[in-house]
Amino acid sequence: MSWTDERIDTLKTMWEAGQTASQIAEALGGVSRNAVIGKAHRLGLQSRPSPVTTKEEARAAESAPAAAPVAAAPAPKPSPAPVRTAAPAPAARPAPPPFATDSTPEAAPAASEVDDEAEEAPSAPPVKREPVLRSVGPGGFVRQAPGEQQPPIAPAPPRRLVPARTAPEFANKTSLLDLNDKICKWPLGHPGEPDFHFCGDKVNPGFPYCVEHCGHAYQAQLPRRDRRAPPLPFGGPRMRLG
DNA sequence: CCCTGATTCGC
DNA sequence: GCGAATCAGG
């Protein structure tokens, strides 16, 4: 695999969004985590919150919160003081429903409301996590262990980078940057359009999609005579424009 | 052990 | 430029 502009763009975006190198490598495919890191550095995307802290940083982080902030004894060595911009928290972000209740009434013409869907469970302890389930997909597809085989490129590849700016009405929807191993990556809409997003439901464990979309992605073979023309979910192979 | 990113260095 | 190997912290 080579670093096409497209892939580089994906790398940049995901890297800046706080996705880990492993996640980026997996999303890109065909490259290792190291390759992603190496490329990121070569691109100058250097140094995000790294688990590895230098001794300088460690001391700074240690003394800073404790000591009075006014002290500010300028260290002889310019410690970068890495500012943790924003709050990445890439992994744990299930479904932030800070719905913009105010008015943004322009687009989303046929958007049925979902706000009555508000989460209940006022004090429900979210203790139960996926207990190594082995499920059988709805389409009758054969369940495979996650490591056994790469999932086939089922629907339109989520490769196509989402424009960084998504219409605010869909800001709470699952964007490329929200993708992780626990949520359904089934694309909805078309890349490049403002309402393009991903399903975002909880995945069928071991699969990149939720149970419902696994049923779309993995379909048991039918006898040929019973088979109809394939649905071509996204218009078939991408056309090259220009 | 697992994970993470950083760095090196042969290609 | 690339990325495996290696390093080093969590």
Q: State the helix count.
A: 5
The helix/strand series, from N terminus to C terminus, equals: HHHHEEH
Determine the oligomeric state from the structure.
single chain
Q: How much strand?
A: under 5%
**Helical amount among residues, as a percent range?**
10-25%
How many strands, which pairing sense, and closed or not: the largest β-sheet?
2 strands, antiparallel
Radius of gyration (Å): 22 Å
Give structural notes.
This is GcrA family cell cycle regulator. Residues 61-74 have a biased composition (Low complexity). Pfam families: GcrA (PF07750). The protein is 20% helix and 2% strand. The chain is mainly α. A two-stranded antiparallel sheet has the order 1-2. Helix 1 packs antiparallel against helix 2 and helix 2 (21-28) crosses helix 3 (33-42). The longest helix has 12 residues, at 5-16. It starts with a helix and ends in a 25-residue tail after the last helix. Residues 66-168 and 228-242 have low confidence and may be disordered. It binds a DNA duplex (11 and 10 nucleotides) through residues 2-3, 20-22, 31-42, 46-54, 58.
